[in-house]
Automatic annotation (TrEMBL):
Residues 7-326 form the FAD/NAD(P)-binding domain. Gene3D superfamilies: 3.30.390.30, FAD/NAD(P)-binding domain, Fe,Mn superoxide dismutase (SOD) domain. This is Dihydrolipoyl dehydrogenase. SUPFAM superfamilies: FAD/NAD(P)-binding domain, FAD/NAD-linked reductases, dimerisation (C-terminal) domain. InterPro entries: FAD/NAD-bd_sf, FAD/NAD-binding_dom, FAD/NAD-linked_Rdtase_dimer_sf, Mn/Fe_SOD_N_sf, Pyr_nuc-diS_OxRdtase, Pyr_nucl-diS_OxRdtase_dimer. It comes from the Bacteria. Keywords: FAD, Flavoprotein. The keyword Transmembrane helix does not apply. Residues 349-458 form the Pyridine nucleotide-disulphide oxidoreductase dimerisation domain. Its cofactor is FAD. Belongs to the class-I pyridine nucleotide-disulfide oxidoreductase family. NCBIfam families: PRK06292.1-1 (NF004939). It comes from Photobacterium leiognathi.
Amino acid sequence: MKTLNVDVAVIGGGTAGLGSYRAAKAHTDSVVMIEGGPYGTTCARVGCMPSKLLIAAAESVHNIEKAPAFGVHPQGDIVINGREVMDRVKRERDRFVGFVLEGVDEIPAADKISGYAKFLNDHTLQVDDHTIINAKRIVIATGSRPAYPGVWNELGDRLVVNDDVFNWDDLPNSVAVFGPGVIGLELGQSLNRLGVNVTMFGLGGQVGPLTDPEVMAYANKAFNEEFYLDPNVQVESMKRVGDQVEIQYVTKSGELATILVDYVLAATGRRPNVDNLNIESTSLALDERGVPTADYYTMQTSVDSIFIAGDASNQIPLLHEAADQARIAGDNAGRFPEIRAGLRRTKISAVFTDPQIAMVGETYKEITTRLGTCGCFETGTVSFENQGRSRVMLRNKGMLHVYGEQGTGRFLGAEMIGPDAEHLAHLLAWAHQNKMTVAEMLDMPFYHPVIEEGVRTALRDLNAKLRLGPDMIKHCLDCGPGC
């Protein structure tokens, strides 16, 4: 068996692994990256990029369907060619993966170790049955994988996860989606708009990542206008019947219903890929899920020489977060023992449904946990149903809640569902990271007519409730009509 002695070993070749490798390389040439599967990121292969390709196809259909409301009437029936839809998804997906692989190809071959790593102790890894690596420092960047109840495996190839969807050659007739989270909502709504009969189920009443009860209730209502969604379903049975799956469940009205679907799409969350690393051979402290605990600002675990980054850290499973964590973990592994706190940006997340969902800064749940409901914060609100630009575009669905701290007037965070929420969230995230007060945010320029005027309305409502500004004036003249 071959033996290597290195300064830094990075386990994983995805977003976090590649970022950690490059950051560590800035300090030492003695760095290796270990990858057992195909190189390329979850985002490019089976995550954010292929899902947005499917969403784009669905949006094109939806825009044609709502054109008559503008007095524009397309001639003839809308024909959705599932094979052509999936062909473009896969072609463009492969193109994005190719960009990632170009970067991987630039890494020296000697720095890339093929195989799956397991810990022998805090400083030693074994890669398959061919290499022992003695590393002064180690970065765990093994990513995550879909998680679902093991009993569902009895459904065989009728059970799919998001990874499988992007390998379809054609669109099915029907799908039951379990899990109305980010993945479930995005794929479920897209498939529905592309002509697939979608039924969506959840447990516990959760819709998307939202924590604000009012915003979540609006989201539940909005999606139910397009397809059946029960976020707290009672499933009586689920079994394979030929090439379909039979599901018996109790409807929201309390009746027993039975459906047959071509596929069950499991979108019930993801599990950090740390359970096959033989972590029990280390002295790492683990959380309740068996994931190594780590400092939020340094990504250093309980073992000084071991760092963790990306989805494997079980902190915030988003690409931009994985990239930031990788930069911090790799930099600290490379410069060890001189550890530095890295920049952790304001939290921002988006769900690319229609209307979109977005969250910025502290969530409603985090704020109420920290401050309680004693009046230490207030909520400003706006509805997009009568917001001027939103109505012009017939995209007038949604609501925005912004949160501010009593006394200081500091902007704490926001949760929303609405048009162009991805862009509104960025504006609010920049304000939050700069620790702006609500009054300072209101001093910023707002054009007319734009959807962003809805943000101003919510901020004015919040400022009035914080007793730091005048009471809200309905249809204020300086806002222009429809604000």
